[in-house]
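Module 6 notes. Inverse folding takes a fixed backbone as the condition and produces residue identities as the prediction. Think of it as a translation problem where the source language is geometry and the target language is the twenty amino acids. Below is one complete input and output pair. Work through it position by position during the lab.
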């Protein structure tokens, strides 16, 4: 029976054809689209979605169509990959069965369903589901074909509809109100805006934070010439009290051990990687969330790791020893260690789902650059989950000095075990063994002034964790949302800081329609889409409910349109400020030429014609510094994940 196998991308099609044909598949091209054939099978790859959801052409003019009207417009699916569609239609003419082998998740199901109207009506359609593109997984999936899950596809389609209607109508409203059009439009979205609000609120907490002073008293003790520290167990908020304790203790030469405890504890390895924990760890290595996910997807397509979009932290039965033997090609020393300290059962996390296993290696290969870095992170995490608990020794002592208790704590690693293969930060602190009633010599007394610290800015990793906790987005979309916020110049830096535009848009939305900035509504809509996938709700109900929420938001927004526009304009002026002109003292501003090219120009033009060209790609902003040689502003450029500073004057050396 002649079969057509549809994969999500060409790289997956090539690998699946190679596996199913035992390396005998041949490559051909139709309408510029590569496909693979062997025996009576043809395998072809898509480029993700071959159809885009959009509004009809007559609604494309931002100035002529009121943003609110878009809520009631029925979006249409437009064919975006015409050559692929032509190739599938021609190949499918004489096939008896079509197997959808796209990624096994909500989006993958919809990508597969989108091609069904290109197929002959009498053709049999089946679904292959797998979590890794390995010979074992692929052959097993094709031996156990399933049916398409239309509810799962509909839930993905509902997200497409809702996100388009919300994003397009709100983006147009905010951009028109603030006169930020063309390439400079201000995007607003169902998930994007509450995520941005989290960042802005955190920054406001930092800006409004008032440090509160406190004092710590420490004593340096010694036993047999081994020094260790004990600390007054509470922060002291009153300086007078701190001085009293310090003066009292300073007079003493010895302390008496009131209590001493020593115990051995086990430290469990971290649980297997789900998408959120993986992106958090990748972020700590300095790899952005979108970049980490892109690399993970490429490793999956090349058959090196399991599917990287998963909420699962509990391994199903896997050939663990077989995977370790494959890893030995790349990590021989580490694998040897793991076999020496193999635990009876792999460690498990708290989250369990049946669709995909946690992220883990499935094969090993030669890699370099960031691909090697991401692969090593996943491989080491996997090895750690199979390794015995680390053994720690913890000590705690209460030392009384002039009737005042001080606390000494110590911890050391007795057996590293899993920490040998998955290094983590562990601050070892030594204190000697002590006995109750023992007299300990005081070497020094310290009074240290400190102050409370503001909350930390989000990193991409900590933001993804917070988004998951609040139900903002999904494992498949959170990294994309963060990427968009960077692209639109709403946020900057590894320690995420919002720009003036971010403050203005969030504040305007809060005053106009606060519901758009709250995670509750978005999280509830995510649950509604899950109910579509479970067959408990239908597509039309959920889309209609989201439209009603949006209509109410627009009533308030339209009533405050002028005020919202003015506030955003002021913020954009601030954001587009590029320092003082080094020729006349005027303001240097980000401007656009008649051809749409951005440059820095002086506000005193035409009296002053001072200007500087700018890179046309990436985001640029003033670094609040001036060149020491020529006085021009120093600009920061961010493009494709790289960031650098330079003098705006291209003639300056």
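Target side of the pair, the amino acids:
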């Amino acid at each position: 029976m002649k079969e057509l196998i549809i994969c999500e991308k060409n790289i997956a099609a090539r690998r699946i054809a190679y596996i199913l044909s035992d390396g005998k598949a041949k490559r051909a091209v139709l309408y510029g689209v590569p496909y693979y054939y062997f025996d009576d099978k043809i395998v072809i790859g898509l480029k993700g979605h071959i159809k885009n959801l959009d509004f009809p052409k007559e609604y494309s003019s931002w100035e002529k169509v009121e943003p609110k009207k878009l809520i009631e417009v029925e979006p249409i699916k437009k064919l975006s990959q015409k050559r692929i569609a032509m190739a599938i239609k021609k190949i499918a003419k004489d096939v008896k069965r079509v197997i959808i082998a796209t990624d096994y998740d909500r989006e993958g199901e919809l990508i597969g369903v989108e091609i069904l109207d290109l197929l002959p009506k009498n053709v049999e359609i089946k679904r292959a589901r797998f979590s890794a593109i390995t010979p074992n997984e692929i052959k097993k999936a094709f031996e156990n074909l399933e049916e398409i899950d239309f509810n799962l596809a509909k839930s993905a389609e509902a997200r497409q509809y809702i996100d388009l209607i919300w994003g397009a109508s709100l983006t147009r409203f905010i951009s028109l109100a603030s006169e930020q059009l063309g390439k400079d439009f201000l995007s607003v979205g169902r998930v994007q805006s509450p995520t941005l609000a989290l960042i802005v609120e955190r920054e406001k907490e930092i800006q409004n934070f008032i440090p509160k002073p406190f004092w710590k008293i420490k004593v340096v003790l010694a036993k047999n010439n081994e020094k260790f520290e004990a600390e007054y167990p509470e922060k002291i908020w009153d300086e007078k009290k701190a001085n009293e304790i310090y003066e009292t203790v300073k007079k003493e030469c010895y302390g008496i051990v009131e209590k001493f405890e020593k115990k051995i504890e086990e430290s469990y390895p971290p649980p297997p990687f789900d998408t959120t924990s993986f992106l958090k760890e990748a972020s700590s290595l300095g790899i952005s969330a979108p970049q980490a996910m892109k690399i993970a997807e490429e490793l999956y397509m090349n058959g090196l790791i399991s599917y990287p979009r998963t909420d699962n932290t509990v391994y199903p039965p896997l050939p663990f020893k077989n995977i370790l033997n494959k890893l030995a090609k790349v990590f021989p020393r580490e694998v040897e260690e793991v076999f020496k300290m193999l635990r009876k059962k792999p460690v498990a996390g708290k989250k369990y789902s049946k669709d995909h296993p946690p992220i883990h290696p499935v094969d090993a290969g030669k890699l370099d650059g960031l691909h090697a870095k991401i692969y090593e992170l996943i491989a080491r995490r996997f090895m750690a989950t199979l390794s015995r608990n680390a053994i720690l020794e913890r000590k705690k002592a209460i030392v009384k000095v002039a009737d005042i208790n001080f606390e000494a704590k110590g911890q050391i690693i007795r057996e590293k075990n899993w920490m040998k293969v998955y290094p983590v930060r562990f601050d070892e602190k030594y204190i000697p063994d002590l006995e109750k009633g023992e007299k300990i010599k005081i070497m020094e007394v310290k009074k240290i002034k400190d102050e409370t610290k503001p909350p930390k800015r989000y990193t991409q990793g900590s933001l993804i964790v917070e988004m998951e906790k609040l139900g903002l987005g999904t494992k498949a979309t959170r990294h994309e949302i963060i990427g968009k916020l960077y692209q639109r110049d709403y946020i900057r830096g590894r320690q995420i800081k919002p720009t003036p535009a971010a403050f203005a848009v969030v504040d305007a939305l809060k005053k106009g329609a606060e519901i758009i900035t709250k995670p509750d509504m978005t999280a509830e809509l995510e649950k509604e889409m899950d109910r579509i996938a479970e067959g408990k709700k239908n597509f039309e109900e959920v889309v209609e409910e989201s439209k009603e929420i949006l209509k109410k938001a627009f009533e308030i927004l339209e009533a405050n349109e002028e005020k919202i526009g003015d506030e955003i304009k002021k913020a954009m002026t601030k954001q587009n400020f590029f320092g003082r002109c080094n020729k006349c003292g005027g303001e240097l501003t980000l401007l656009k030429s008649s051809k749409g090219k951005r440059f820095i120009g002086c506000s005193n033009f035409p009296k002053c014609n001072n200007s500087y060209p700018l890179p046309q790609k990436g985001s640029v902003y003033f670094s609040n510094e001036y060149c020491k040689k020529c006085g021009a502003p120093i600009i920061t450029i961010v493009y494709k994940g790289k960031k650098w500073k330079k003098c705006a004057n291209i003639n300056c050396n």
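Reference fact for the lab report: Residues 150-177 form the longest helix (28 residues).
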